[in-house]
Specification:
By secondary structure, the chain is α/β, with parallel strands linked by helices. The chain has a single domain, classed as 3-Layer(aba) Sandwich (Rossmann fold). Helices cover 33% and strands 11% of the residues. It has 9 helices and 9 strands. The chain has a 5-stranded parallel sheet, sandwiched between helices. It has a two-stranded antiparallel sheet with strand order 3-4. Strands 6-7 form a two-stranded antiparallel sheet. Strand 8, helix 7 and strand 9 form a beta-alpha-beta unit. Helix 4 packs parallel to helix 6 and helix 6 packs across helix 7. About 2% of the residues have low confidence.
C-alpha cells in the first residue's frame, strides 16, 4: 500500500540530504518565495550579521540602497567611524523587533521619540543609537536634527525599496521604566549612566516578539504595498547575558525564539520569507567549521558560504543572466567591501570590555 513518504525527493530524508553528504554538498536549503534580482532595490537593517548581506550584494552588482550616505567630504575611515554605509540608514544595529518597531513608528508618525538624552562630560548621546556619533553631539538640538535626518532616511528607504532584509539578533534588551522605550544597548556601557531606578532589563518572549514584528510589518506594508521582507536570524551568539543564566543557555534560548518567530511570520505572510543563514552557520551538520576560535565570530569562509547559498538558491528559483561583479548602489559611499570581522560594526561587542 503506497504512502506519502514513498514519493518524497532525496532532500526530505536526513540520510540522503545530510548524513551521506559533505557539509559543502548540503544544498537547496532555501526555496525563495520571491525574486531578488539585480534590478531589485534592496534595503538592509538589523544586527551585525546583516552587514555581510549588503557588502555581498554590492560586490555582485546588486542595487543596495544607502539612503543616508553622509557628507561627501568624509574619508572612508570617517564613514565607518560615523556608521555611514553600515546599513541603509544610520540607526546603528537594530537588534530586536521592538527596536525596529520603534524606529518605524517614529519615522512614519505613529509616535514621537522620547526627549531623553544622555550627557557625558558636556557631550550628548542618542540613547537609541549611541555609537553613531563618536564623542557625542555638541547639543541636544544637534542630536535631534541628526536623528530627524535618519528618520527621513528610513522613510525614503522603505518607500523606495523592493526588498527589506532584516536580521533578528537578540531578545534581551534594556528599557526605560518610565516610558517602556528600548535602548540600543545597556545604559552606561557605550554611553550614559546606568540607574536601576530608571532602567530595567527585559527579555522578550514569543508573544512580545511576534507582536512587535507584526506591528513593524503592518507599518512597512502600509508605507509600501509592494515591499517584500526577507528575514534572517544572526548566527552570532550573545556577547553577554543579564538573564541570570549561563551565556550558552541564554544564547540558545534567544536564538530559538527568534528563529520560531521568523519562521512563523514567513509562513503567515506571502510577502515575508526566511533565509537560513542561522542554520548554515550553527547547525551541527556543518561541524562548527565556520566559527573563529572564539566560537562566536563567523569567519570569512562562513560568510562566503552563506552568501553562495543565497545566490545559488535565488538563481535556481529565478534564473538571471550571468554578469561580471560590479558595484551598484544608488548613492555615494556605500558599505565597505573588506569583510574582515574587525570592520563589522557591532555595538554589543562593547560588552566584552566588562568581562572579568
Amino acid at each position: 500500500m503506497s504512502h506519502p513518504y514513498e514519493s518524497l525527493p532525496a532532500d526530505r530524508f536526513w540520510r540522503t540530504a545530510v548524513a551521506e553528504r559533505s557539509p559543502f554538498e548540503i544544498s537547496g536549503l532555501w526555496t525563495p518565495k520571491f525574486e531578488i534580482g539585480k534590478r531589485s532595490r534592496i534595503v538592509t537593517a538589523g544586527s551585525c550579521f546583516a552587514q555581510h548581506f549588503s557588502r555581498a550584494l554590492v560586490v555582485r552588482g546588486y542595487k543596495w540602497l544607502d539612503c543616508e550616505p553622509g557628507p561627501r567630504a568624509l574619508t572612508p575611515e570617517q564613514r565607518r567611524d560615523y556608521h555611514y554605509g553600515t546599513f541603509s540608514f544610520r540607526t546603528g544595529n537594530i537588534y530586536t523587533p521592538r527596536m525596529l518597531r520603534q524606529w518605524l513608528e517614529w519615522a512614519f508618525g505613529g509616535s514621537e521619540p522620547p526627549p531623553e538624552v544622555w550627557e557625558v562630560d558636556g557631550r550628548f548621546f542618542d540613547p537609541f543609537r549611541p555609537a553613531v556619533e563618536p564623542g557625542g553631539f555638541v547639543s541636544p538640538d544637534e542630536l535631534s536634527a541628526s536623528r530627524a535626518v535618519t528618520l527621513a532616511a528610513i522613510r525614503a528607504a522603505v518607500q523606495k525599496a523592493n526588498v527589506l532584509v532584516f536580521t533578528l539578533g537578540l531578545t534581551e534588551s534594556w528599557q526605560s521604566r518610565a516610558t517602556g522605550h528600548e535602548y540600543a544597548i545597556c545604559p552606561g556601557t557605550a554611553a550614559g549612566r546606568f540607574d536601576p531606578e530608571v532602567h530595567q532589563f527585559f527579555n522578550h518572549d514569543h508573544r512580545t516578539l511576534m507582536q512587535d514584528m507584526s506591528v513593524a510589518l503592518r507599518i512597512l506594508f502600509r508605507a509600501n504595498r509592494g515591499l517584500r521582507v526577507l528575514l534572517t536570524v544572526s548566527p552570532v551568539p550573545l556577547t553577554a547575558t543579564a538573564s541570570g543564566r549561563h551565556v550558552l543557555l541564554a544564547s540558545s534560548h534567544s536564538k530559538a525564539l527568534l528563529r520560531v518567530v521568523a519562521g512563523q511570520l514567513a509562513q503567515d505572510h506571502a510577502a515575508v520569507d526566511y533565509f537560513p543563514s542561522y542554520e548554515i552557520i550553527t547547525h551541527p551538520a556543518f561541524r562548527g567549521m565556520f566559527f573563529a576560535p572564539n566560537m562566536r565570530s563567523v569567519t570569512q569562509t562562513g560568510v562566503d558560504f552563506v552568501m553562495a547559498n543565497f545566490f545559488r538558491d535565488q538563481s535556481a528559483a529565478h534564473p538571471q543572466p550571468v554578469r561580471a561583479p560590479v558595484a551598484a548602489r544608488e548613492t555615494e559611499g556605500g558599505p565597505a567591501t573588506d569583510e574582515t570581522e574587525a570592520e563589522i560594526r557591532c555595538e554589543e561587542e562593547i560588552l566584552n570590555a566588562f568581562s572579568r
